[in-house]
Amino acid sequence: MKTRQILFLSSTALVSFVAMGVTMGVTMGVTIGCGGSDQPAKSPDETTTAAMTPPPPVTPGEPVAAAGAATTGREGDPSQTPPAALSTGNGTSPTEAQPNLTDAQIVEITHTANTGEIEQAKLAQTKAKDARVKKFAAMMVKDHSEADAKGMKLAKKASLTPTASPTSASLASDAQSNTTALKSQVGTDFDKAYVDVQVKEHQAVLDTIDQKLVPSAQSADLKAYLADVRTAVATHLEHAKDLQSALSSTAMTK
Fold first, then answer.
1. How confident is the model at residue 17 (pLDDT cuts 50, 70, 90)?
2. 3 has pLDDT over 60
3. CA-angle at 225, arms to 223 and 230, nearest 5°
4. Distance CA 241, CA 136 (A)
5. 8-state DSSP, 79
């Protein structure tokens, strides 16, 4: 009887030991099959923090590529920027020469300048108060009348029909504006205004002769005529400047 009890207890212990071994084997197998690791899994907070970690700082002097930057130049580097096309605002290049004036247009320009001076001088002969201004005006009528007659004679000889141009139109417009303004002046104010206009207009005509008329003239007779006109205009300009200074001195002494 005792022998049976001993055998039963031994069998029970053996079964318990075997069962314990099977349980441990299954547990280890499951752990290995699932790729278990010695490191614990990261929590959601730790994962989010890792994703938001900023990139390491850039080393000074290290170039940084800008997103979408062109490969042919560096942004913000003036040496890499192609130069803009030059423009003069009128569709022509800076070096493109202006069209030359014809001899017929040159004759019209000198005629316009002469008639403008004659009209203003005649106005001064009737409105000027200072005797020196009246004398100057008389010289303007005489010299410009003679110059205009000579120019018209030259045009007739060369079969030239005086032709308008932007230059002659500009001279005519300026002369008319100045004449209109002078008509509203009286006394010493007129004297000063008239002489100031003469300085301004003779300088403009002298520049036009040098810069446009002489370089464009073709006829030898016309070139000779322009040389004479230039001499007269330069002389008138000096007289007008002297008179301008004299009138200014007279006004200061009063």
1. very low
2. no
3. 95
4. 11
5. G
Q: What is the pTM of this model?
A: 0.62
CATH code for residues 104-253: 1.20.1260.10
Six token digits for residue 206: 């002298």
Q: For the chain, what are the domain ranges?
A: 104-253
- Asked whether 124 and 137 are in contact (CB, 8 A), the reply is yes
- Tens of pLDDT, residue by residue over 99-157, are 699 999 999 999 999 999 999 999 999 999 999 999 999 999 999 999 999 999 999 99
* Structural tokens at position 91: 């569709």
Q: Let me know if 93 is exposed, middle or buried by CB neighbors in 10 A (0-12, 13-18, 19+).
A: exposed
CB 86 within 8 A of CB 93: yes
Quick one: 244 exposed, middle or buried, by C-beta within 10 A (0-12, 13-18, 19+)?
middle
Average pLDDT along the chain: 76
pLDDT at 39: 47
What single string gives the DSSP state of each residue in 139-152? Answer: HHHHHHHHHHHHHH
User: String of b and e for 99-117 (b: at least 16 CB within 10 Å)?
Assistant: eebebbbbbbbbbbbbbbb
**Distance (Å, whole) CA 8 – CA 29:** 32
For 28-88, where are the E strands, in sequence order?
none
* The two three-digit tokens of residue 128, written as one number: 């000027």
d(CA 43, CA 149): 109
